[in-house]
C-alpha cells in the first residue's frame, strides 16, 4: 500500500504542466507582460487600472496602473 503513495507522487511530478507553458506567446502578450505593473485580463480592467493595449491576439485587455498626478 505504501508503494501506491510513492507511485502517485512520482506520477504527479512527472506529468505536471508548467504554468502557462501551453499558451502560445503572442507579441502583444509579451509586450504587456514586459511593462512594469501590467497584466492581461479578460473583460474590463479593475477600477484603478486602465486598458493600455491588448493581449492574446486582441482577445484580452492589457491593464496598467493609473498614475496619480
Automatic annotation (TrEMBL):
Leader peptide range in chain numbering: 1-22
GO molecular function, one term: CCR6 chemokine receptor binding
Positions of the Beta-defensin-like domain: 28-63
The keyword Secreted is annotated on this UniProt entry: yes
Origin species: Junco hyemalis (Dark-eyed junco)
Gene Ontology biological process terms in this record: defense response to Gram-negative bacterium; defense response to Gram-positive bacterium; innate immune response in mucosa
Family (UniProt): Belongs to the beta-defensin family.
Protein name, entry field: Beta-defensin-like domain-containing protein
UniProt keyword annotations, A-Z: Antibiotic, Antimicrobial, Defensin, Disulfide bond, Secreted, Signal
Main location: cytoplasm
Amino acid at each position: 500500500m505504501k508503494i501506491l503513495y510513492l507511485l502517485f507522487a512520482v506520477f504527479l511530478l512527472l506529468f505536471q504542466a508548467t504554468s502557462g507553458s501551453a499558451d502560445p506567446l503572442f507579441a502583444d502578450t509579451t509586450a504587456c507582460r514586459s511593462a512594469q505593473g501590467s497584466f492581461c485580463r479578460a473583460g474590463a480592467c479593475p477600477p484603478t487600472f486602465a486598458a493600455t493595449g491588448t493581449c492574446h491576439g486582441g482577445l484580452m485587455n492589457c491593464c496598467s496602473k493609473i498614475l496619480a498626478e
